[in-house]
Structures are given as structure tokens and as C-alpha cells.
Specification:
With 414 residues, the chain is α+β, with helices and mostly antiparallel strands. It has one domain. 13% of the residues lie in helices and 30% in strands. The strands form two sheets. The protein has a ten-stranded antiparallel sheet, with helices on both faces. Strands 1, 2, 3, 4, 5, 10, 16, 17 and 18 form a nine-stranded antiparallel sheet that branches. A hairpin with a 6-residue loop joins strand 2 and strand 3. The radius of gyration is 20 Å and the shape is globular.
Length: 414
């Protein structure tokens, strides 16, 4: 591709880079064995590419008409030379970033989804550049900084966006990323103009893989550990297991998950065979204990959950006019997403016990909605060898108190 054409493409997608020779070809990003740590004097870089697709997908990006802006392979990639994971803002995923291992297995921690499921980004309109775009603020080598701006829109009509999210991601050479997220309502007099769900954990399975290949089999029960909620300040742990027949088993009960939700700090973890991926948050990072509830959407009968079971969706790549209802089918040629366990903001002293009934009632509380708006929420993202490392990193970060909101708070955690 001629240099002039390449620069025009970058300008059109509003991705800012310092020079075209900063682009890192996908083929040069190598992965190491599970447990690798950042070498001394390592660096981090953010670069734009035009040849990326999630989950090692190489086929045509069809049948979605017309791929939003006809640039489905645009992406910004944060990479660490010598480390096993990349952090990727992919156009086909509405730029919602994922941590990705060399196999294509990945973790997504989502975005501000509009109240009542009325507006989000995982649809054809949500991934248009006018509704979702990224900009490289700093390309490295000491720090990479990417800003993501998006409008949560209805899947059928984006003429009236519900809210605007602004998220900054700061990455350091140690392989850690700090997410700073906030939103502003664009419909301030209606519940659908707000969000009570800034974090929900999903996984991504690459082409041709199943979740049974991505996770370790439990020796005693024969199923697979796919999600963990971890209290950083105690030994409390809540595990969710799936099997090949769609059965879900949990290790822990409603009281355990509730206690973890109200801890001073907790982590949501996906324990892939290649390593653990995590999202850490807590009181010091903008998630007050009295307003936090973790919800298990997988296990039938779990308090507040939707009881999806092994929820699988053809979101990756988003080759569909409306991916919000595109369920995975056996033999699908696409990567797929799966989940989930999520974090919800709730009014003080309240809990979601029956999901749609209670969630809908809390969304109608306009005073609470306005409290959720214009706040800053901070999440620590990364990979780890084991749960002990997750606990250690989480406590070191959150124990800094208000200072954990500073990007440099994560620079020396390892």
C-alpha cells in the first residue's frame, strides 16, 4: 500500500500515530510460555494496523451489510515485546478492547451499556466510526495511552445516542493496563440515558476452538473452570464450571459472591490454560462497597442472575447486522464470545435478587442514575500466573488509596 493512501486511511478512522513506521506487523508479535514476566528494560508500544481480525479469523467478514464503515480490519494494538499477551482495540469489536493470548483466546471487560439493554455497542450501528473511535495519545516506549470514545446507541436507530463514554487506557512495560472510565448522559431525563454496568467479563474463543480446549478440566468433576470471582483481602473465592453438555456448576454460594462484592477489593478472572486474565476493582478505585454487586449470569438459580448457562455468541468478529442476538451454533466458522459474570452498581443497601424485576426498578431511580454519571471508575487489567499473583497485584494497587487513580500507580507493581 502506498504511504499516502495509508495516511489517508488512518486519518479517516481518527487514529493518531506519530509516524507510519511505528506500525507493528502482526507477524512480529510473539508469545512466550505461560508465566513469563516483563524483562528488564522492556518497552510498550501502541500502533495502528489494517489487517487484524479477532480470534485468528481469516475468512470473509460477511454477511454484515456494510461492515459499518467498510473498514472491519482496523485496529490499535498495544504490545509488549517478550510478553505473551496483546491489548487490542478492534473495529469489528466496536473498539471494545480485549486482552489476547497468542492462541487467540481473549478476555473482554466491556463498556458502559445503556440501562435496560436499550443501547450498547455490539451492533452494526455501534461500531460506526461516528459512534465509536480510538486515538493513540502516547505510542510508547515508556507508556502507551489510548483513548476510546463511544456513543451507546439503539441497535435499530442511532439518531439519538443514549450516553457518551470516555475511556483512557494506560499501559506500562510491566504488562499491566489501567482503565479509567466515565460517561455522560445524552438523555438526562430518561433512565435509558444512564448506565449501571461498567464492567462485565466475557471470554473470546478463537476460530475452531471450544471453551473445553481453552480451560483446564477439573479432575474430580470432569468439567472446566471458566470464571472466578476473587476477594483480594480474604480467602473467599467463587468459581464457575461448565461442561460439554451445557451443565453449569458453581463452587461457592450467593452469600460468598455477595461478600466478595462488598469487599474492599476483588478481581474477576478467566483462568485460561495459557494464563490468567483479570480485571481488578475496589473501593479505592471508584467502586464503593455499598454500591457493588457481582452477578453470576451462568448458574441457574444464582441470585440476581439471568441463568444463561453456557452463554455463547457469534460476536467475534461481528459479522452480523445485529450481533446482540446472534447466538453461537455448533460448527460456526467464526470466533465467538462467551460469559459471563458481571459487576452492577446498585443503590446503597439494595441487591438485585430477581434480575429483570429488581434491575428495572433500580434503573428507574433517577437520583441513583445521576450518581452513577460523571464519576471515574478505575480497573486494573492484566495477566498473571496464578491467583496469588492476582491478589498481590490487586492489594498493592488498591492499598495506594486515592493514588491508585494515577496512571503511574501501576508502573512498579511488578
Amino acid at each position: 500500500m502506498h504511504r499516502g493512501v495509508y495516511i489517508v486511511i488512518l486519518l479517516l478512522v481518527r487514529i493518531s500515530i506519530q509516524a507510519a513506521d511505528q506500525l507493528t506487523p502482526l507477524s512480529t508479535v510473539a508469545g512466550l510460555a505461560h508465566g513469563a514476566q516483563a524483562p528488564q528494560n522492556s518497552t510498550v508500544s501502541a500502533s495502528a494496523v489494517v489487517d487484524y481480525a479477532p480470534g485468528h479469523y481469516t475468512g470473509p467478514l460477511t454477511p454484515s451489510p456494510p461492515h459499518a464503515d467498510r473498514n472491519p480490519r482496523q485496529a490499535v494494538i498495544i504490545a509488549w515485546p517478550g510478553l505473551p499477551a496483546r491489548f487490542i482495540f478492534s473495529h469489528e469489536a466496536s473498539y471494545c478492547p480485549i486482552f489476547e493470548f497468542p492462541s487467540g483466546a481473549a478476555m473482554c471487560n466491556q463498556f458502559f451499556e445503556g440501562n435496560l439493554g436499550e443501547a450498547e455497542l455490539m451492533n452494526n450501528l455501534g461500531r460506526k466510526e461516528k459512534n465509536s473511535s480510538v486515538e493513540i495519545m502516547e505510542a510508547g516506549p515508556a507508556r502507551a495511552w489510548v483513548r476510546w470514545t463511544y456513543l451507546a446507541v439503539n441497535m435499530r436507530d442511532d439518531s439519538q445516542p443514549r450516553l457518551r463514554g470516555t475511556e483512557d487506557y494506560f499501559a506500562y512495560p510491566n504488562g499491566l493496563v489501567l482503565r479509567k472510565a466515565s460517561y455522560i448522559s445524552l438523555m438526562p431525563d430518561q433512565p435509558i440515558g444512564y448506565s449501571t454496568q461498567p464492567v462485565e467479563l466475557f471470554g473470546v474463543a478463537p476460530v475452531g476452538a471450544t471453551f473445553t480446549q481453552l480451560f483446564e478440566r477439573d479432575a474430580a468433576h470432569g468439567d472446566f473452570l471458566v470464571h472466578t470471582a476473587l476477594d483480594l483481602y480474604s480467602d473467599k473465592c467463587y468459581n464457575i464450571y461448565w461442561d460439554e453438555k451445557g451443565k453449569v456448576r458453581r463452587q461457592g454460594d450467593d452469600a460468598t459472591l455477595q461478600a466478595i462484592s462488598r469487599s474492599q477489593g476483588f478481581a474477576l478472572v478467566q483462568p485460561f490454560r495459557e494464563g490468567l486474565m483479570f480485571a481488578i476493582m475496589g473501593v479505592a478505585s471508584g467502586f464503593p462497597a455499598e454500591n457493588s454487586q457481582l452477578i453470576d449470569h451462568c448458574t441457574p438459580g444464582a441470585e440476581g442472575g439471568s441463568g444463561w448457562g453456557t452463554g455463547l455468541w457469534d460476536h467475534w468478529p461481528i459479522g452480523w447486522l445485529n450481533s446482540q442476538t446472534s447466538y453461537w451454533k455448533p460448527g460456526s466458522p467464526y470466533p465467538f464470545s462467551f460469559g459471563s459474570i458481571g459487576h452492577f452498581l446498585v443503590p446503597p443497601g439494595k441487591r438485585i435478587r430477581k434480575f429483570w424485576q429488581d434491575y428495572s426498578a433500580y434503573c428507574a431511580d433517577m437520583n441513583f442514575n445521576r450518581w452513577t454519571e460523571r464519576r471515574n471508575y478505575y480497573v486494573l487489567l492484566g495477566t498473571a500466573r496464578d491467583l496469588n499473583e492476582v491478589r498481590q497485584l490487586g492489594r498493592q494497587w488498591l492499598n495506594q488509596g486515592p493514588d491508585c487513580a494515577r496512571p503511574e500507580s501501576i508502573a512498579k507493581l511488578r
